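Bumping with the actual sequence this time:
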Amino acid sequence: MWRFNLVPKSSPALMVSAFDRFCVEGPRDDAALRAAGYVPLPEKTPGARAYVIDDRRPAVAVSDKMCVVQAESRTGQTTRFQNYVAATYPGARAVDPAPLGQNIEQAWALPTNPPALIATERTVSVGWYRYALIYFRPGET
């Protein structure tokens, strides 16, 4: 696999689509990701697993309580995700991202049962900015 495809330059549409498919709507499991062509990376954090694919689709990481979609930063990602949140969760309430972590840019509390949070994160890795969409369900086990 080309190393730049581990965390590729995914389009904003591909990122939001993967987030919706694997983090929100569909099952967050090995079978669903493998069926979509993803392969797991060696497990480095117990209980969490990262999946990659050798094309421009974003990396996906899943655990019992969280799902993350990550790609290199590109123009339009923030706007596309803000529009997705507004359309998908009209009752979402913006929350202060500061307590959630140093690199969290935006966060929303979702009117779901159990409660959930979604957030965006921007980090620097090897001189490049990475952008992540995060779905966190603290009430799940």
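The tokens above came from a reply further down the thread. The chain has one domain: 3-136.
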